[in-house]
Design a protein that fits this description.
The complex is a heterodimer of chains A (about 775) and B (about 220). With about 775 residues, chain A is α+β, with helices and mostly antiparallel strands. Chain A contains 24 helices and 27 strands. The longest helix of chain A has about 45 residues, at about 275-315. In chain A, about 40% of the residues are buried. Chain B has seven helices and ten strands. The longest helix of chain B is centred in the last third of the chain and has 16 residues, at about 175-190. Chain B starts with a strand and ends with a strand. Classes of the chains: A alpha+beta (about 775), B alpha/beta (about 220).
Chain lengths: ~775, ~220
């Protein structure tokens, strides 16, 4: 019996090649899309899951309370780890970890900057980063120890055993290689080429020894069986036991979860990457649903051709249940064929997708769970797609169909029309989404951010430049292509440092306020192209500028100054005068509103951070060549590295860009598959109305009349779909835009474009079939009845 | 074998009620060959569908092999139909995607006859119908006579007690029609009961008894002499 079903299924596929191709292709595209998304979701969810102590690893988080809001940070005091592990018995191990640093590595004549982390002794005993050589238990315990990747070992010690060798760091300290790292697992959110002693960094960063200053991250490992609630209760007020002025609260977040759940709002977890995981999972289901509906419509449309077979089988004695089994089996067979094509599509698309998402996803045929997923996907898709056609066809009355008089009940027609409406509504939602995501990203990247991002470069201020910055600046400014040079402690595009240590006469001392701050050198305002509303920039001609401040409008508002220039203020105990008021500009990404910002002059001979260079328009290559020449003179032992401000700004919206690109593909796919279904339904309707069309033609209807008649019905469906899609799209996109402090308005014409494009695409699809039907010879169509 | 009493069939649409059968009393004995005749629309095909358990009567009783079947569900009717009744249609109704062999094999598949037995039964009946040489052809590749012989082979392969034929020669030329009628007669001679709807007095001449229908009623019954 099975072979009979198999044969008839294959022969039917062969006989209606176009239909079969549309059907299989539609399903294959839908399945390919959901497969790719599944691979991505699986990869995201498995991030950081390889640590053997995973369930016991936590990141210490800090809630800070300001007037009217709670801010949640992963940065904590730099002495938290060493203390908390002593004071809280449930904490077995703890390690500080710094942000990614890029110190200079020198071995003989070989030097370069390398990316890595400063951590504490127990780091390798907490996290499962394996060593190929060296002892993980002790490698980081000595303050002059450094653990490097195999890549660095090969780079600095080719054909030698790197273990025990010496590397000079930042032209100052000699460190000994105490371990060679095994390859870091792909699913580690933490990537580094070296690990070095945090205590070495700590020595030169005294500020990080204060309980009132935050910066480094702190990771802890609980003892086995410890209760998270109990530990959280114990550490909540921990900082206050060390610093009675503090009002912050600590809590633990699971390390494995911290990758996906990184956003906090008013002290509560508020998603993060998990939002994208959810959105994409939903998109995968939507596209698969569209593909299934497509299949249903095409299969039902073709049922006219299979009606006789159903009739004969029934007359011979086939039960309804047996026929349902046959047709669902056929659907699963077709789904299986689609799966093979889908795997091929995925295989071809993965490199592009990986590039887009910066992943290394692959079809993992060696894993049982992958096979299981394929089987479940095939069975489920086949079952869902095949269920309606199977029920429909198995219910055909043999007496009627064998007479060749198959007519559809209105209920069946409504159901199928409903499917098309559903399909198109989903597609239109995706199209609106695509347009709006695209507009928002475009807005973020082109919005006037308050300074001139073009022709602006920056580079690390390090090595000998720190001592000789003034003469470096002098030399550089005389070079062709260079307009202005300045320096900034913080990255000017992302000022991360903020403080509560600001006061001014009349300040309400019960209020806790946070001010972003940055130390800069002369010409900063002009180099950046920031607009000065009032007052002046710092300048060497004003001798006392080291205690003066320049503030932005947001600061003035916070302070309640209408006319701030000339007013007094104090930061970190240094009383001074506000000498300039800047128009608000974005000193962080557009995800966050413009915060109050205070600029102060970098103390002389303490230059660090970045060199900021304004080049002449159109002379960037000349400017880079000049800069490199001067840089090599002043800083011969450091590699020359520079960044374009506009490019770095664009990178801040990388994940949005990925979403924008993906939403383009998904929306296109959705509308394409929907059209395949519509095409099938149009063909089916034309066939059903063959006789009517014949009669109308005999009575004098023109081809135009008939095409209009046949197309209008479908356009109505698309219009209904539009009406359903709009409020849903509006709701979800409004929600998505809320994430951005700066966002586009939901204009009506975004929706109009989506609706019109769906209509046009649908019209083209349908009229193809309508014209074909209308051009048919009426003699033939009437005789066939 | 078959006995109907006061069989009624009324078709209702939203506005019209059509009485297709109006009190049919009919008895067909084992081994009988009955022809049903009458003008178009007199209810012949409706009667045949009910006798063939494809449809239920609106009223009346229908005794099939000692079982009252007038009110059976579709599922029960399908169960009873299987293996007990063979159908032959005017338009053959072969499945286009299956070969001659596969078409004939189909009823045996639904009866779950084991493979080796099935092969023997199909080959026997194909040989008997003289289409063994065409066993691997598809219906479109056959002449009308060959198609109808295939249909008859399919109807009899499971050795049913009753064959229902709805104008079996209607789409055939006279030579092929003659051949089909001879085949049916032979089957009848071997003990299979046959009920045949026909317009052709010549074909009706092969039957033992002719039942004339008019407006859903039996008007005359005559035995062949």
């Amino acid at each position: 019996m099975f072979s009979n079903y198999f044969k008839i299924a294959l022969r039917n596929l062969q006989k209606n090649k176009a239909f079969s191709a549309i059907n299989i292709l539609g399903l294959a595209l839908g399945m390919a899309c959901s497969l790719i998304i599944m691979l991505w979701v699986q990869d995201e969810v498995a991030m950081d899951s390889f640590h053997e102590n995973g369930p016991r690893l936590y990141r210490v988080m800090e809630n800070q309370f300001y007037s009217g809001k709670i801010e949640t940070y992963a940065s904590t005091p730099g002495i938290l780890a060493e203390n908390i592990v002593k004071d809280i018995p449930e904490i077995e191990k703890a390690s500080q970890m710094l942000w990614e640093e890029e110190p200079l590595f020198t071995v003989g004549n070989n030097f370069d900057k390398e990316k890595g982390r400063y951590v504490q002794g127990d780091f390798l005993n907490m996290f499962s980063f394996k060593l190929d050589k060296g002892d993980a238990r002790t490698a980081l315990k000595r303050p002059d120890g450094v653990v490097i990747s195999k890549k660095l070992a090969d780079k600095y010690f080719p054909n030698q055993d790197a273990l025990g060798k010496t590397i000079r760091i930042d032209s100052k300290d000699d460190m000994m290689v105490t371990g060679i790292l095994a390859e870091i697992p792909k699913n580690s959110s933490l990537k580094f080429d070296f690990l070095m002693s945090y205590d070495r960094w700590h020595k030169t960063n005294g500020w990080a020894k204060e309980w009132g200053n935050n910066g480094p991250r702190c990771y802890v490992m609980l003892v086995k069986g410890a209760s998270l609630e109990k530990v959280n209760a114990k550490i909540k007020k921990y900082i206050k036991t060390k610093n009675k002025d503090s009002n912050v609260e600590l809590f633990l977040q699971s390390y494995q979860e911290s990758y996906l759940y990184s956003n906090w709002d008013s002290g509560r977890q508020n998603g993060g990457r998990i939002d994208y995981v959810r959105i994409f999972a939903i998109v995968a289901i939507i596209i698969l649903a569209i593909a299934c509906i497509n299949f249903m419509n095409l299969a039902t449309a073709r049922s006219v051709k299979r009606a006789k077979e159903v009739g004969v089988r029934k007359v011979i004695g086939a039960m309804k249940s047996v026929l349902i089994g046959q047709f669902i089996g056929e659907a699963i067979l077709i789904t299986f064929m689609s799966l093979v094509i889908a795997l091929l599509i995925v295989f071809l698309l993965l490199p592009t997708f990986n590039m887009l998402t910066e992943k290394e996803l692959s079809l993992n045929f060696t894993e049982g769970s992958f096979w299981l997923f394929l089987v479940v996907l095939t069975l489920l898709t086949g079952f869902v797609a095949g269920s309606y056609p199977a029920l429909f066809m198995s219910s055909l009355n043999p007496v009627v169909v064998l007479k060749g008089a198959l007519k559809f009940k209105p209920s069946a027609t409504y159901f199928r029309k409903g499917l098309v409406v559903f399909q198109f509504a989903l597609s239109i939602i995706l199209i609106v989404g695509m347009i709006i995501v695209h507009r928002q990203i475009n807005f973020l990247q082109t919005k006037n951010i308050g300074f001139d991002r073009e022709n602006l470069l920056y580079m690390p201020l390090e090595g000998d430049l720190q001592k000789n910055f003034a003469s470096f600046k002098q030399a550089l400014q005389n070079q062709p292509g260079i307009k202005l040079v300045t320096s900034s402690q913080a990255n000017p595009l992302e000022v991360g440092s903020s403080t509560q240590g600001v006061s001014w006469p009349g300040k309400d001392t019960t209020q806790l306020l946070l001010f972003a701050n940055n130390s800069i050198s002369y010409d900063y305002i002009q180099t950046m192209g920031i607009q000065l509303i009032e007052g002046r920039d710092f300048g060497p001609q004003f001798g006392t500028d080291t205690t003066n401040y320049i503030i932005n409008e947001a600061t003035a508002r916070k302070m309640g100054y209408k006319d701030p220039v000339g007013k007094e203020m104090t930061m970190w105990g240094r009383k001074g005068t506000i000498v300039g008021l800047m128009k608000d500009f974005h000193h962080n990404t557009l995800h966050v509103p413009i915060e109050p910002l205070i600029l102060r002059l970098q103390p002389k001979d303490d230059y660090w951070g970045v060199v900021v260079i304004r080049t002449e328009a159109g002379k960037i290559p000349t400017a880079i060549a000049s800069t490199e020449k001067i840089f090599k003179q002043f800083n011969p032992h450091f590699p020359f590295k520079y960044f374009f401000a506009d490019q770095e700004l664009a990178k801040q919206y990388k994940s949005e860009n990925v979403v924008s690109n993906l939403s383009n593909y998904f929306a296109f796919l959705a509308i394409f598959i929907s059209c395949l279904g519509l095409f099938g339904l149009a063909a089916f309707t034309a066939e059903q109305r063959t006789k009517e069309i014949g009669v109308r033609k005999v009575l004098g209807a023109s081809v135009g009349n008939l095409v209009q008649m046949l197309s209008l019905d479908f356009l109505k469906l698309v219009l209904i779909a539009t009406l359903i899609a709009f409020p849903i799209a509006w709701y979800f996109l409004k929600d998505w835009l809320q994430k951005y402090a700066y966002r586009i308005d939901l204009e009506w014409w975004y929706f109009l474009i989506a609706a019109v494009s769906a209509l046009v695409i649908a019209l083209v699809t349908v009229s193809f079939q309508a014209i074909k039907a209308a051009l048919m010879n009426p003699v033939k169509s009437l005789k066939s009845e | 074998m078959i006995k109907t009493t006061n069989l009624q069939k009324i078709f209702t649409t939203e506005e019209v009620e059509t009485t297709a059968l109006n009190g049919i009393d009919l008895e067909v004995k084992d081994g009988e060959f009955v022809a049903i005749m009458g003008p178009s629309g007199c209810g012949k095909s409706t009667l045949l569908n009910i006798l063939g358990l494809l449809d239920n009567p609106s009223d009346g009783s229908y005794d099939f092999h000692g079982t009252e079947v007038a009110k059976l569900s579709e599922r029960q009717r399908a169960q009873l139909r299987k293996g007990n009744i063979g159908f032959v249609f005017q338009s053959f109704n072969l499945i286009d995607e299956l070969t001659v062999y596969e078409n004939v094999e189909l009823p045996l598949l639904y009866l779950k006859v084991p493979a080796n037995e099935r092969k023997e039964m199909v080959e026997t009946v194909l040989t008997r119908m003289n289409i063994m040489h065409r066993r691997n052809h598809f219906p479109q590749q056959l002449s009308g006579g060959q198609q109808q012989r295939t249909a008859i082979a399919r109807a009899v392969v499971a050795k049913p007690k009753l064959i229902l034929a709805d104008e079996p020669t209607g789409n055939l030329d006279s030579a092929n029609g003659e051949e089909v009628m001879k085949l049916l007669s032979q089957l009848n001679d071997e003990g299979t009961s046959i009920i045949m709807v026909t317009h052709s007095p010549y074909d009706a001449g092969f039957a033992h008894r002719i039942v004339n229908l008019f407006d859903g009623k039996v008007v005359t019954e005559k035995m062949r002499v």
